[in-house]
User: What shape does this take?
Amino acid sequence: MPGRDEKHSMLDDASIEGWIKDHDPDGATKLYTCWSRGDFTGARARYIAEYLNRKNAEAAAIAHFASAQRDERATVAAEKSASWAGWALAISLAALALSAVALIK
Assistant: This one.
């Protein structure tokens, strides 16, 4: 039973990360599953919950930062595209005006 594993105290980050490494592949998922099933109790369960919340918060912050970077790049690209579209419109109108002048003469 994972909660009775004497190799890892599960009361500090290094111990939890060691448990995750020992249970790879998908050690983090297995940890969450064991914790949610109630395999860990007492102080171990509380510390694991805090650890998982911290890691989820870190992952969410990283994902939010990456999303913000993508949004910024998309905004810059849209601004450049709008600028080029403006120039294309100006050139098209100038060409239309020149062709209208040529037809009138």
About this structure: Confidence is low (pLDDT under 50) at residues 1-5. The two ends are 94 Å apart (CA to CA). The CA atoms of residues 89 and 95 lie 10 Å apart. DSSP finds three helices and no strands in the chain.
